[in-house]
Amino acid sequence: MRQKFEKFMQGRYGIDHFSRFLLVGALVCVLLSGLLRASALNYVSWILLIWMYYRMFSKNIRKRCEEERMYMDTKEKVVRFCKGEKSVISDSKTHKIYRCPHCRQKIRVPRGKGKIEITCPSCRSKFIKRT
Ligand SMILES: [Zn+2]
């Protein structure tokens, strides 16, 4: 049985991070559909599961690798975005964030310095703000 399965899986893509993500997504949908009595989520979980199996048994490995890379890129962006938001919140007591009126660049300046002239690091324009 094991050998048969191994032979079957030869040249096929198998499981990667994106497949695991689809599996977790399907499980979450099943749980939520039970909790919220939303049967539509049941269909979503089936779609996610079928998608996962399709990728697992797929022989188009290059395409699957591309999907995996896209998934990892997106995940990294989301993680970086969340971390960025956290750091803004944690030092909001000591620093203030302004946007450059010319290029919309975010600029972080220390609080409690009174009126100061801020020079934008990207476009070099100057503007005055109270900190
Ligand atoms: Zn600027």
Structure description:
By secondary structure, the chain is of the alpha+beta class. The protein folds into two domains: 2-90, no CATH class; 95-130. The protein is built from four helices and four strands. The strands form two sheets. Strands 1-2 form a two-stranded antiparallel sheet. Strand 1 and strand 2 (106-110) form a beta hairpin. The N and C termini lie far apart (71 Å). Bound molecules: zinc ion. Zinc ion (ZN) is lined by residues 100, 102-103, 105, 120, 122-123, 125. Zinc ion is lined by residues 100, 102-103, 105, 120, 122-123, 125.
Which ions, cofactors or small ligands are bound in this entry? zinc ion
Order of neighbouring strands in the sheet with most strands: 1-2
Which regions have little confidence, pLDDT < 50, spanning 5+ residues?
none
> Over all CA atoms, what is the radius of gyration?
24 Å
Strand content: 15-25%
Q: What percent of residues adopt helix (DSSP H or I)? A: 55-70%
Q: Assign an overall shape.
A: elongated
